[in-house]
Amino acid sequence: MKAELISVGTELLLGNIVNTNASFLAEQCARLGISVYYQSVVGDNKERLSETLKTALSRSDVVILTGGLGPTKDDLTKETVAEVLGRQLVEDAHSRKRIEAYFAGSRHRIIPDNNWKQAQIPEGAIAVDNENGTAPGIIAEHNGKTVIMLPGPPNEMIPMFTISIAPFLNRLQPEVIYSQTVKICGLGESLVETMIGDLIDGQSNPTVAPYAKTGEVHLRITAKAPDKESAFRLIEPVSAELAKRFGNHIYSTDDKETLEESIASLLKKKNLTIATAESCTGGLVSGRLVNVPGVSDVFKAGFVTYANEAKTEFLGVSEETLRAYGAVSEQTAEEMARGGASKAGCDLCISVTGIAGPDGGTDDKPVGLVYMGCFLNGKVTVRKFIFKGNRSKIRENAVVNALIFVRDCILEDIE
Amino acid sequence: MKAELISVGTELLLGNIVNTNASFLAEQCARLGISVYYQSVVGDNKERLSETLKTALSRSDVVILTGGLGPTKDDLTKETVAEVLGRQLVEDAHSRKRIEAYFAGSRHRIIPDNNWKQAQIPEGAIAVDNENGTAPGIIAEHNGKTVIMLPGPPNEMIPMFTISIAPFLNRLQPEVIYSQTVKICGLGESLVETMIGDLIDGQSNPTVAPYAKTGEVHLRITAKAPDKESAFRLIEPVSAELAKRFGNHIYSTDDKETLEESIASLLKKKNLTIATAESCTGGLVSGRLVNVPGVSDVFKAGFVTYANEAKTEFLGVSEETLRAYGAVSEQTAEEMARGGASKAGCDLCISVTGIAGPDGGTDDKPVGLVYMGCFLNGKVTVRKFIFKGNRSKIRENAVVNALIFVRDCILEDIE
């Protein structure tokens, strides 16, 4: 099955926003085993949208449009689709009630007239509930093709797609598609690809596809089968093989779990508390930990000791160490981690000190040099990194490698 | 002049990466006064790319392609464009030398054979130097239309566009286009739009266009004129008018300066040092400050006191206050700011404490409630916010509003 994406919105054409809707939908389609060969962006313009839609319908089975379903005159996705399909717009009673209920629960009790426009859908189409806004999604079948219209705001579109559209698309397919994601940290993308080369070569069902992000590689195992159970039976041996190959480098097989969430669970399970002691990352490591709701059970305190005096005063790094080895050194990282754990009264403390640039590098200590210390059970392990890229890239890499370091130390401690 | 963007790459079709190239180029075109009515994404597929390019050439004056200029067999943008334009690929001697020089300076001294493919360009086309990679950019003129091919990696594409392509496009236009960005913080998007409604209505040259990002609104003034000086003469009175209307809410008129950079400059100018005391933002406020190279002159230390005990121990918040008013209260924010400044020995300290959710909200203290305190000159000012959205949105809003709060306090202190 071939799908095509059309994103509607002048703000996309002006480069005012990045088209994250298209990447989300493309990834979801890939996950459902649906091929996407084309994506387009057009403005809120009837003629150009109409032309783009006609081209899409001529070459794809499913056309997914996002945006242009708002209440204003500028929004004309629905009107244009209805025209291209030769349908009238009619009011959907259920959507009208839903809009009424939506406004009843909001601060704006008076419903602007133009919001009723949002209850209209092309004759014979299906309205899809929007749990986070007024515009319903719309599914219209036409000569064996399917046109799906979704609202533009990602916080409305993503839940609607996940709850209603993905299962609908899955039913359109002769076989169901299920996938599992195996999330790996601490190994580079090329190494991971090399390690699964034999699985990728000549694979058909299930398939394994790698997706890289900073410090992580996600391997998605996707199976097609007549039903969910058979799909899982196909996935299971591949998942077991990956577990054998990557062992502790796998931090999760749950689609939704993030690296910091897996670390927070690990800390909870082991009854460990953590503190952070950061210099060049400036609080971004603790910021990642605080992404996790309820992290207060395990994360107690973080120190951002950017100045040398702060390293001495709040972490107890000795002035002698700073003088002899410098702020970016194995010794300082070691003392920062030890001091942070002691001051915060935590079982574990991760420290980060480095040269993020663009200035401050020397031949001995180039920009990108980062030392990290991890204190656990009275002992500090130190790691040295040399990251490439600009200031923000170096710091981003340092943050994720600090998290991986923490995870490694906990896992080694367990063994 | 009408331009159209074609992004080439299977990883875009699979949703593996977000198409930031398209938003960058769209914004740059808007800035140059070039209209973009269509953007497309296609995979590395000769037939589909050829079809998309022909459609684009039929309706636009300039077609900008990104991606598919690499050395592998998969990369076939250049081959496809040459075929559509009816040209041969020929070796560009200058590009061959540049590739040789590029490899001479790298760790890989042996040049892989397929890299020579990158020195080829369509006959009669212009090769554009790539300062950050091997693939040259290419400009080919064809029947009064222009096809521009750029490498896909943003760190190669963006400098190449800025240095070579933007001036080239500007020369294609009968008049030059220049713009200035006036960056506003602390006012909502709709309020800013209302305040400049009269300037937007009936504007022609220069134009003013608002661009919103979290906590900020950027107003871009764009003028067309026969030369740079005349363009600036058109921009100047509008810029002055905006300065009059928005006063201190304007933090910069420099395209590249960020909010945190402007705050760091302000602190330096006033000879003030700053500390942070964060709870729900978990270090992201200090993380923003450390975005600024050389911030160590003014930023000394940050405390991430997520646990109540940490608030007491490291910031001196009294247990009595925490018991009586709770961790998310005016009183706690006040004591956090005062304590942070005193412990770090800084002139200024910003504190943030709030309920980022999804749990922990009550009728009295809902999810999204955030108190901030700003200590300066012995006095703490407290602000209360109720932010909407999920945990990450609430924290993102809290971070930028904390920065704006710091800026406001410094400016009030100056007056």
From TrEMBL, chains A, B:
Q: Which InterPro entries match?
A: CinA, CinA-like_C, CinA_C, CinA_KH, Competence-induced_CinA, MoaB/Mog-like_dom_sf, MoaB/Mog_dom
Q: Where is the MoaB/Mog domain?
A: 4-171
Gene3D superfamilies for the chain: 3.30.70.2860, CinA-like, MoaB/Mog-like domain
Task: Tell me the protein family, please.
Answer: Belongs to the CinA family.
| Alphabetized NCBIfam families for the sequence | cinA_nterm, molyb_syn, PncC_domain, PRK00549.1
Q: What is the name listed in the Swiss-Prot or TrEMBL entry for this protein?
A: Putative competence-damage inducible protein
Supply the source organism for this entry.
Answer: Anaerobium acetethylicum
